[in-house]
Amino acid sequence: MSEGKKNIAIVGGGITGLSAAYYLQKEIKAKQLPYKIDLIDASDKLGGKIDTMKQDGFTIERGPDSFLIRKESAARVAREVGLADDLVKNGTGKAYVLVGDQLHEMPKGSFMGIPTQLSPFLFSNMFSLKGKIRLLSDFVLPKSEPVADQSVGEFFRKRFGNELLENLIEPLLSGIYAGNIDDLSLMATFPQFYQMEQKHRSLIKGSREVLPKKVRTGKKTSKFYSLKDGLQSLVDAIESHLDPSIVSIHKETAVDHIEKKIDHYHVLLDSGDVKKVDSMILTIAFPVVKRVLSQYDFWNVFGETKATSVANVAFGFDASAIPTDLDGTGFVVSRNSDYRITACTWTHKKWPNTTPEGKAMLRCYVGRPGDEAVVDLTDEEIAAIALKDLKKVMGVTTKPDFHVVTRWKDSMPQYTVGHLERLSKLRNEIDKALPGTFIAGNNYQGIGIPDCIDQGEKAGENVLDFLSE
Ligand SMILES: Cc1cc2nc3c(=O)[nH]c(=O)nc-3n(C[C@H](O)[C@H](O)[C@H](O)COP(=O)(O)OP(=O)(O)OC[C@H]3O[C@@H](n4cnc5c(N)ncnc54)[C@H](O)[C@@H]3O)c2cc1C
Ligand SMILES: Cc1c2[nH]c(c1CCC(=O)O)Cc1[nH]c(c(CCC(=O)O)c1C)Cc1[nH]c(c(CCC(=O)O)c1C)Cc1[nH]c(c(C)c1CCC(=O)O)C2
């Protein structure tokens, strides 16, 4: 390695950028590396989509409300930054799906809507007799010809028919990707089901061998963690562990453009400053990457990565306002139902720590491909749409004490068919044209918080490998 300090820029201080900074700092300290980091974010707070607010004693998540326990990196980082005692598990494990005008409990033994046990599906009144018979064809259908990728919709429709897809699989996946399952890539989201079909032919049989017992026995255990004071506390704790002698944090500073020089980069900031760096991690959304490096045209190999716009509205109520107070985390809405909301979280049930005694909080989601215009309505209009649906589903007629609307424009990246292949091409192009530059974050290899943390750490490793060459 050459003499002198090396500089690293991390662009975007959401959970991906923060994880990259935190990981790099650990390595820099442990190995006493002569590296410095600039962590640059356009917003006045770090955390990006993680955004907790407090109002009238309520803890309101405007973005994510939790992370999956089985993806271990998020809880690991939380423990490392001193939040072990703040981790809370969801209060109840049950979720519902609204089909027609009725809330149905998810059948036991369902993993993303795929049956791992048959009887709960055969006894559920969520499906017609015809739908039930169709899903049994999974046992007899041959496995399909190997393909590089296909849509989630096509794959599951083939094995189980339309009803299971539309009443259960589609709403559950929409409650993760806010996308259209007929565009969503199977290999970028649930490759294990493709492999299961290739190996075992039947998914019902295969899932018995592959999925953990807890899932198969239908135990409604807690699957999610959150934090006592909300997820922003994870962001704040990581930030407070960043040592200013290694990591300089620049908030309210947008990267305007990046230029490649002979053996380094110039990162031009909207403040007029220029950072000279040797290596970069870009965790900003892909359209922003394209904009700040607009002199390159190879970005097109990644195609048009569309992201869906969504919004949500959190309502604070008196507990007495909720006549149908079922035990559960909330519900997702099936494609064929006549509702505008796509899901609703019974936040006071899922996360009792967020809601004062005697109160209730419901968070409703709107926006999906085909109904993204809803996100541009006023707060009052969005609240009215959600309240109309809540009245129909749950008989809520009392006015809420307050509502908080949050819009997330172009924020749910869509991993469409062929995503992984395009991503690998993109990485090759970046390697060739912009050595030492690494992309990470929810546009690429998973949108869950733990996936973003994993990507941040991996990008940190890549930077270290590059700088040590
Ligand atoms: C409504 C909603 C609910 C969700 N629910 C869950 C959930 O329950 N569980 C879960 O695991 N995941 C959930 N997710 C997904 C998860 O929140 C995100 O995938 C994750 O937080 C993304 O992190 P990131 O760091 O990759 O990107 P971001 O958080 O988007 O961070 C990007 C950062 O880049 C900054 N930036 C933008 N432009 C510039 C620029 N020019 N210069 C400098 N900085 C810039 C932004 O200010 C931002 O801070 C949800 C997402 C949404 C929108
Ligand atoms: C039932 C339900 C879901 N999701 C939701 C509900 C409503 C009731 C409730 O809050 O419990 C709410 C929700 N959660 C998310 C959305 C999409 C974003 C939006 O529209 O704002 C929506 C609408 C993001 C998410 N929701 C989730 C993630 C993270 C996924 C991951 O880490 O892979 C995201 C981005 C987690 C989630 N969410 C859901 C499942 C089945 C999973 C994954 C579980 C698993 O894999 O075992 C369904």
TrEMBL record:
InterPro entries (UniProt xref): Amino_oxidase, FAD/NAD-bd_sf, Protoporphyrinogen_oxidase, Zeta_carotene_desat/Oxidored
UniProt xrefs under SUPFAM superfamilies: FAD-linked reductases, C-terminal domain (SSF54373), FAD/NAD(P)-binding domain (SSF51905)
TM ranges: 7-24
Cofactor names: FAD
One Gene Ontology cellular component annotation held by this UniProt entry: cytoplasm
Compartments, as annotated in UniProt: Cytoplasm
Reaction catalyzed: coproporphyrinogen III + 3 O2 = coproporphyrin III + 3 H2O2
Keywords: Cytoplasm, FAD, Flavoprotein, Heme biosynthesis, Membrane, Oxidoreductase, Transmembrane, Transmembrane helix
Pathway linked to the protein: Porphyrin-containing compound metabolism; protoheme biosynthesis
Amine oxidase domain location: 15-463
Pfam family, one: Amino_oxidase
Magnesium found in the keyword field: no
GO BP: any one term: heme biosynthetic process
EC number(s) recorded for this UniProt protein: 1.3.3.15
Single GO term (MF): oxygen-dependent protoporphyrinogen oxidase activity
Family to which the UniProt record says this protein belongs: Belongs to the protoporphyrinogen/coproporphyrinogen oxidase family. Coproporphyrinogen III oxidase subfamily.
Biological function: Involved in coproporphyrin-dependent heme b biosynthesis. Catalyzes the oxidation of coproporphyrinogen III to coproporphyrin III.
Protein name according to UniProt: Coproporphyrinogen III oxidase
Protein species of origin: Paraliobacillus quinghaiensis
